[in-house]
Amino acid sequence: MKVVSGACALFDPESGCRLPFDARPVACRLYPFEPWPDGTVSVLAGPSAGAEPDEPRCLAVDEADGVEALAAAFGLDDASLSRLTALLRESVQDHARRTARGLGAP
Ligand code: SF4
Q: How far, in Å, is the centroid of ligand 1 from the Cα of 57?
């Protein structure tokens, strides 16, 4: 994704993401949840590896009272997390197929 001034080019500091929810990349729609191949889902709780120590943290993650409350704060439930996880898996597999054929992103 294109980065401008250290942030996603689609990020507006005043209003957040410029894209409607359903048009955002699947990984963005899953944030702050990260699915793993074994079927588990973890929560991205802090700055990414290698980030500056004062990098902003996600306040929703810091302030949520449990994983279910966090999911609800993002408008997600078990069904939507499963659906987005399946979409992410499909898009990773599609990317691998396109890369193997020498094609770029769609
Ligand atoms: S949600 Fe995704 S597409 Fe939107 S501003 Fe954040 S990183 Fe960019």
A: 15
